Structures are given as structure tokens and as C-alpha cells.
Amino acid sequence: MNENNQNKNQINIELTEEIAEGIYSNLAIITHSSSEFIVDFVKIMPAAPKAKVKSRIILTPQHAKRLHRALTENLQKFESVHGPIKESSNEPTPPFNIGPVAQA
């Protein structure tokens, strides 16, 4: 019976070949309202005057908090194996003015 309950709670997640390839991003722009968080993943190239949003993810505040927790846990696991991740202070931050924003 326990195995039956486990099977009912499992979700079959499909990953297409196209999505599995992924999209490179080196900038995330985060905006929010009272009901959603919007994360735009951008590929910005050095000395390029223009950058394109490559993907946009819209999350509920509850899911954004779960994602934050999962990222924090995974970063801690990564650093415990590979050592601290060094952040570059040389990278310029592009000027953005589009509402409540945090960058990652």
C-alpha cells in the first residue's frame, strides 16, 4: 500500500531535446508585483550595445521562495565539494530602470 501511495504522488516530467539543450544566460533581471515574480534571463556580450532576453519565467511569490531555497541549498552543496564561488567585482552592471528590480 505504501508503494501505491508513492506512485500516485509521482509526476512524470518530460524534457524535450530542444529544451534539454538549454539557453546560455549571464544576466538575470528580476521584477515583481504583488502577485508574481518575473525573471528575464539575458545574454549580454562585452562591448555590445544591445542584449536580448533569451527566456522569461513567471513565478508566484510562493514558488519564487521555494526556488530561492532550492538554489541556496544547491549552492551550499556545490561549494562544499568545489570550494567557494568567486564573484567578479569587475563586471559592469548595466543600467536598468524598469520598476522594482534585483539582479542575479
Q: Could you outline the blueprint of secondary structure elements for this entry?
A:
Elements: H1 2-9, H2 17-20, E1 27-32, E2 37-43, E3 52-59, H3 61-82, E4 101-103
Walkthrough of the structure:
With 104 residues, the protein is an alpha+beta fold. The chain has helices at 2-9, 17-20, 61-82, and strands spanning 27-32, 37-43, 52-59, 101-103. A four-stranded antiparallel beta sheet has the order 3-2-1-4. Strand 2 (37-43) and strand 3 (52-59) form a beta hairpin.
What is the H/E string?
Answer: HHEEEHE
Q: What is the first-to-last residue Cα distance? A: 45 Å
- Sum up the overall morphology in one term: extended
Give the strand line-up of the largest sheet: 3-2-1-4
- Structural class, from secondary structure content? alpha+beta
Q: How much helical structure, as a percent, in the residues?
A: 25-40%
What Rg, in angstroms, do the CA atoms define?
18 Å
Question: What percent of residues are in strands?
Answer: 15-25%
Distinct helical segment count: 3
Largest sheet entry: 4 strands, antiparallel
Could you give the count of β-strands? Answer: 4
Global mean pLDDT: 86
